[in-house]
Amino acid sequence: MRKTAQSPVNVHVLVDLEWSPQAGGHVKCWERFAEAAIKVPDLDLTVHFSGEKAQTRQLSSHVKFEIHEPVFSTRRIPFLGHVPDHTDMGQFHPELARHLMTADVIHTTDAFFAFARTAERLAAQTLVPLVHSVHTDSVAYSELFTRTTLEEKFNILKLNRFLVDKLRVPQRIAGLMQMRLNKHQSLCAHVMTSREEDRQVAMRNVSPDKLSTLRIGIDRTVFKAQRGDRTKLNEKYNIPDDALLVVFVGRLDEGKNIYVLIDAVERALREGLPVFLIAAGIGPAANVIEQRLHENAACVGFLAPHELAEIYGSADFMVLPSHVETWSMVAAEAMACGLPVIAAAQSGVGRFIGDSHAGELVHEDSARAWAQALHQADGLRGNTNLRDNAMLLAGEHFPTWLEALQEDLIPVWQAVRKRR
After folding, report:
1. Architecture label for domain 9-217+400-419
2. What is the pLDDT of residues 293-311, one digit of tens each?
């Protein structure tokens, strides 16, 4: 049947990461958008993920997930076992290409791996427009994890220092990733960013009329003003009644800058601050937290949204040490519950906190600076204005998922289809 301008726009979103119930924020973001799309009848949405087993998950008559076995997963590369999310290193994905033949719009969420490369080839052949959104600072991540890999795997006769300091391999890899991102964006009909620095990069690749902002949403039925049961939480995790309770949510690895936070908590404890860390997530740093912080921390693993909301209602502060976040779903959700945030100034959420009196910004990436921030936070415990300001900030900057879908994404998809 011939499509008209009034026909539902058929959009295929590509998320070249493994889908699982414990997946990170990038995957969760598109899960939430898909759930919101169920309420939008003039949109046919398919979100593609990677996974160990191919399957279709039908959310409604017009929204579904397609999960594809990777052509060449990073899981098959032994020295990449510590990467935060596995992806497909293949150059072309035939099964994905077959699905994309029906698309009005192909929306990529990375520029580097099998899904994005397949989309580029299909777009060139069929003239279907590409839309791209930036969700992760992949260039910074590539430099960080290349450095970590070289230091871990080539710690022989100072070979790692030669590769890192002399040959500057991490910076070279990051440079190649930046070139790849530039090329991909230049092929797109539209690019969506969140941070100003990502927008500045995109402006070198597409014209200003092809740029817009993409916001993440909040499920306000779960994350809302509430007071948790601190006494119950203290009993559950053996938290001292007088402790400054801070919570970290995310993957427990180098990419989230968790080791600086561990150093900071350890330092603050030596300085006499009664601080307790709840670390919600999985990753290699869990053992380090338990070994170094002992009874002053609890690694609680992956938690469901309602469990996180209960903790947000009971804790004193969220801590967000990562400085390569474009957005932070967990920070937005925490603030919606009234939990103030201590964040790295370079993080995506840092630009919102500023002088809002909804938390603190840490401008120096060091244990000393983060320990000092914890001491300052201790003096603000019980400040109801902080909690009120956090909720106001969340309401000002973060819509619901349905609002973000209808206001940020769908108008772009409809417009690029018309230009086809």
Report:
1. 3-Layer(aba) Sandwich (3.40)
2. 999 999 999 999 999 999 9
State the DSSP H helix or E strand holding residue 131, giving kind and residue range, or none if neither: strand 130-133
CA 125 to chain CA centroid, Å, is: 32
141 vs 369: which has the higher pLDDT: 369
**For 121-164, what is each residue's pLDDT tens digit?**
999 999 999 999 998 877 877 777 777 777 776 676 577 777 77
Is the pLDDT at 190 greater than 80? The verdict is: yes
Q: How many CA within 13 A on the CB side of residue 170?
A: 18
Q: List own/partner pairs for 31-35 with CB under 8 A and 24 or more apart.
A: 32/217, 32/219, 32/401, 33/217, 33/401, 33/404, 33/405, 33/409, 34/59, 34/63, 34/65, 35/59, 35/401
* Residue 395 dihedral angles phi and psi, to the nearest 5°: -65, -30
> Beta strand 9-18 with 105-108: parallel, antiparallel or unpaired?
parallel
Residue 4 has pLDDT above 70, yes or no: no
Considering the entire predicted model, what is its pTM?
0.91
**In the predicted structure, residue 382 carries a pLDDT above the cut 90:** no
- Give CA–CA dist 336/352, Å, rounded: 13
**Would you call 208 helix, strand, or coil by DSSP?**
helix
CA distances (Å), origin 328, targets 48, 108, 370, 412: 22, 20, 19, 23
For residue range 25-73, list pLDDT tens digits in order.
899 999 999 999 999 999 999 999 999 899 999 999 999 999 999 987 7
Answer whether CATH 3.40.50.2000 is correct for domain 230-397: yes
Q: Where are the domains of the chain?
A: 9-217+400-419, 230-397
